[in-house]
Amino acid sequence: MQLTVKDVAKLFDVPERTVRGWIRREGLPAQELGGIHRFSKPQLLEWATVRKMALPAGWFADDKGGNGTPSTVCDALRRGGIVRDVAGNNKPAVLQEVVRRMPLPASVDRDLMFRMLLAREALASTAIGDGIAFPHPRNPIVLHVPEPQVTLCYLKDPVSFGAMDDVPVYALFTLVSPTPRDHLHLLSRLSFVLRREPFRESVTKRGDDSAILAALQATEADLRTGPGGPATGKEHS
User: Which CATH architecture has domain 2-53?
Assistant: First the structure.
């Protein structure tokens, strides 16, 4: 879905001049055609997440998975699992080990997925700060997985991912989705829950699997009442 300047301004509850300022000064990804800017919702989400901007309530409208039924990060994480002590001393080595240890269907070409993750990182780092990254394929439908899944990987040693805050990454949430809509849905919800307790604390403390899943389920339940508060983007006007 392509958004206009007016759409983005409405989502974040800021003047349109603020959105144009984000394009010029904050690197907000936009395509310009005939003097009109258009925005990709996944790129907008990633840009806002890296800057720790609260997601607006409107973001979660029509919050359903690609098959028309509600899906949760908790369900996706149960499918993808939690992997610990992932080895690697640089980004490519870590991503290769992550792909090797993910519970993927036999039909998925792991080498292709690894190359897709590398290509995505070449565009821009998926690190969102505070030692966390969201590596994901740019074109999720290519992998043909039956259901969206998220794998939480704890690294044996933190590795630089080129994050804006320069903090090495210790935890990666790797997303695999059958459709772009599922992909955006999971990214949106992950961006929400990782800013809130008790889930963030459970991730930082590297609790056992059951504790992390219970904290995620409790935190994600807050989405039923909305993400809580407008974006912080007004400070950039």
Answer: Orthogonal Bundle (1.10)
